[in-house]
Amino acid sequence: MKTAWWNEAVVYQIYPRSFMDSNGDGIGDLNGITSKLDYLKELGIDVIWLSPVYQSPNDDNGYDISDYQAIMEEFGTMEDFDRMLAGIHERGMKLVMDLVVNHTSDEHPWFVESRASMDNPYRDYYIWREGTDGKEPNNWGSCFSGSAWQYDAATDMYYLHLFSRRQPDLNWENEKVRDELFSMMDWWCRKGIDGFRMDVISLISKPLPDGSGRFLDGRMQPGDLYGDPGCANGPRVHEYLQEMNRRVLSRYDLMTVGECAGVTTEEAKRYASLDGTELNMVFQFEHVELGDGELGKWTDRRVDLKEFKQIMSKWQTELSGKAWNSLYLSNHDQPRSVSRFGNDSPKYQAVSAKMLATCLHMMQGTPYIYQGEELGMTNCEFPSFEEIRDIESLNAVKELTEAGKTTPEEMLRFIRLRGRDNARTPMQWDNSPQAGFTKGEPWIMVNPNYTRINAAQELADLDSVFHYYKKLIALRRQETVIVHGAYQLLEPESESLFVYTRTYGEEKLLVICNFTEHEEEYQLPEEFEESSILIGNYPRKNIGGRICLKPYEALALKRNGL
Ligand code: TEU
Ligand code: CA
After folding, report:
1. Is 387 one of the catalytic residues?
2. pTM for the complete prediction?
3. Which segments of 328-398 are extended strands (E)?
4. Confidence bin at 166 (pLDDT 50/70/90)
5. Three-state SS sequence of 456-491
6. Are 234 and 206 in contact (CB under 8 A)?
7. Contact status, residue 467 vs residue 455, Cβ threshold 8 Å
8. Is 553 tagged catalytic?
9. Per-residue pLDDT at 482 exceeds 60
10. How many CB atoms neighbour CB 6 within 10 A?
């Protein structure tokens, strides 16, 4: 198989607002990132994916962009950016930028023009429709609650916003929009960046031929006003991405990953086909949406291990030889992985964080580490709604409590389990006030457990989660089988163990992960009787026969030469 650099890479995601504040205003910034590049080099990652740093009024923390070619003032200047990029490259790392082109901010000059009048040259940059019987054009709902349509009195029409009303959707049908976006992308490529993570790229083509018609959604409940817009994998999405690939991506040596809400394995084979005509890989959502219920993500249901195994395995096997996987358990939109899939009690937090890392990093695909995951950072017990900053959570509280679907108490509990702010509390650098993130007042509270979980302490402790991640990353570089081996699930019926093999020529790995806080017995397959431990999260010397796995124990074994 032909190997590209991003097949072998490990990616680290930075959410700039919460990573490191260099000037005491309580907001993370570019100079803060630059000051921590040696830390990332020490961890051993290859690529940084930087969440948006462009000019933005921050209705959705930078995912609402008002100028694609300027840096958000709070984050610094273009000179700071250039210095950061040079620092990344000097250390042999690469930079992937977030590309948010499904929508802009309502403060983007294109939208300011677009809404001004019907005959404005920018009118058709966005998606405008007449109302139906004095109401919204159809019953599509926004991902951030309420209708996806906003009435605009200036022209007596509605515009579409799949996210907040301050994030109007761009009209990709308009060739001029595509020209503008592609030349903006080209500008960043010429600056020397190494790729793009494409925000909700699966939503850019809307199945909205005439803009009218109610729309029925299987997930709608009686009494619901709005439904899921069902825009994922729309009619022209592949055409647009192929055009983007021809006009921009193929002209540079880039890594591209599409965030693809609603993607199936069938669709992923098109988005991330090995023939290279669209993107390199996608983020799928099936494993992080497991257990979602009547209120969508707002639930306290835990993920069922058998279902989790089935979904992870499906993506491993179905994409094999056809498309490339991305591997993640957390990002800035998800709760902390150790809280969600592991156990964040002081007793098991570190060991279960290492187990999850083993389970994910031994699979085929490009692994993504979300900032703080390498420390085993956990969800945060937000004391009240006062401490919540995220627009998705705040809108949901309002909508769901007003509709009588939940109570404020229950909603706060759900937010502590599933809210996006869990991932956005400041990076825990050390045990000084505010976890060493800022000398000022942080924009969002610091998780009080920073005195126990922080980078300084973990760097000094060879047995820490940090050092375990470092070892996992180094192993991927050393063992081709981790990058290229074929995947096979064993013990599909086990409700406590996740066991799989990876095979590449004569080389074979066995990965065993105990997802419970109990000891579990496991009989090694015969061919692994003679094997060596590549990595494990408990001290163990020899291995063989029937083994007793400790709570949350993980082991990766390599079969000894034939
Ligand atoms: O997220 C898209 C997306 O699908 C999210 O709405 C996700 O389902 C939700 O956050 C899970 O609770 C991207 C960005 O990653 C997110 O931060 C932005 O808010 C969103 O797009 C709009 O740009
Ligand atoms: Ca700052």
Report:
1. no
2. 0.97
3. 366-370
4. very high
5. HHHHHCCCCHHHHHHHHHHHHHHCHHHHHCEEEEEC
6. yes
7. no
8. no
9. yes
10. 23
Question: Ligand 1 centroid to 144 CA: how many Å?
Answer: 9
DSSP state at residue 134: T
CA distance 144 to 177: 25
Q: What is the mean pLDDT of the chain?
A: 95
Length of the chain: 562
H or E element, residue 521: strand 520-523
Q: Which residues surround ligand 2, an ion (CB under 5 A)?
A: 21, 23, 25, 27, 29
Note the pLDDT tens digit of each residue in 287-326.
Answer: 999 989 889 999 999 999 999 999 999 999 999 999 999 9
pLDDT in tens, 427-445: 999 999 999 999 999 999 9
**Which ligand neighbours the alpha carbon of 22 most closely?**
2
Task: Decide if 22 contacts 35 (C-beta within 8 A).
Answer: yes
**The predicted structure's pLDDT at residue 220:** 61
Distance CA 487, CA 483 (A): 11
Written as six digits, the tokens of 463 are 């047995």
Asked if 331 contacts 287 with a C-beta cutoff of 8 angstroms, the reply is no
Percent pLDDT > 70 in the chain is 97
Packing angle of the helix pair 349-361, 465-478 (nearest 10 deg):
20
Q: Nearest residue CA, atom 17 of ligand 1?
A: 333
Residues 6+ apart with CB under 8 A from 483: 3, 7, 8, 364, 476
pLDDT for position 133: 86
